Amino acid sequence: MALAAERGADYRPDMSLEPSFASTPEDVIRRLGLDTAVTVAAPRHPVPLDSRLSVGELAWSSVGAASVAAATIAGSGDVTLDPDRIALAYASERHGRVDGSAPVAFAPLSGFFPAADGWVRTHGNYPHHARALRKALELPGEAGADDVASALAVMPAAAAAEAITARGGIASAVLREVPEVDEALRAGSVVRIAPLGQAHPRGRLAPAGTAPLAGVRVLDLTRVIAGPVATRTLALLGAEVLRIDAPQLPEIAWQHLDTGHGKRSALLDLTGAGDRARFDELAAGADVVVLGYRPQALARLGLAPADLAARHPGIVVAQLSAWGTPDQRGFDSIVQAASGISWIESRDGAAPGALPAQALDHSAGYLLAAAVMALLVRRDAEGGSWLAETSLRRVAAELLGMPRRAEPSTSAPVDAGRHTQTFDVEGSAVTTVGPVVAFPGGPTAFAPPRPWGGDEPAWRAG
Prior knowledge:
This protein is of the alpha/beta class. It has 18 helices and 13 strands.
């Protein structure tokens, strides 16, 4: 990827590969069913996310699609985006601070480990996943990264990943080739749109000239990055977003502060009758439900998209998972390993590498937000209940089908200082990268994040 000075102000990303990913943000949003005359100005230089893969181009079109959707609903003019800010937002964990300290993005048991015949990628950021990893490897509760490395070094990579997964942990063998399944994955849209049932038009979108999603209520059942990025985007654009978490599954504090802007956060145990009744009342008043847990786990709770639409006609459901199918746990880094991305990003051909950001997560989040907006417009015009669905694995397939380079691109470093915001959250100074979705007259700053679990599970009055 060349620098701005080398390419000039009329640079346009190379997104020409067919069949599935559109060449421009405008085309992406049209494929989601939103007819628009809004256009996105060409970037002044490439998005500086250095990679062999077209990460910057994917980021540009994903953020651009959400911006075009917002501008269309708001009735504003054409969109101009900042490629530097997009790069910073995609790598927000590197630029965030809590009381001046940088967060630790990956815990000691999260990473690449050599196996007897290759490499294994593990994920142990959450304590329950780290415990499962240790149990699968028959390690004591205090075992650290060196102990994990010793255990994995004598195991075949696939067998190790299977054993860890069977115990509820998260791991994948690092593939050296892109699986043949990718061609089939790319045959369909990167975000699948499907009707869920009939319902009368709701007419909830506010008139042009106001916040695009003012008056829209969103129930947020997501964790980690992709889902929270989608709902953070909806909150930025005026929606009332209420995140619901189980009290027995605490969130990583800095992670919530990095993606919780403008939302409220409440705790409900949906396996308990009282809390479940409270949730059902909230769902009855929602316009959108965003789901980020495994589909089978949601189905056991009666929260599959079809179940929600049957109980709440007119609902828009956005569903995100790691894999689509199979139905198993996963994160961006694990999907990179299992899809062949990690080996493509190897810098020396001897050890796997990684994308310059959690780009599958962030792209999925912005694309899902764009799809929600397109479906809200469609519901206002046609009625119906609707589903927007994607997965990190589907986004990985999209990225793998785009043009790639023989060597990683290089770009100049970006000054993060002028693109960050600092908030006081219960006495702590929280610094995060500002919003990247933009349109004329739109918001230029986030509302502060709320403490995790600190709000009542109720919609605001009025």
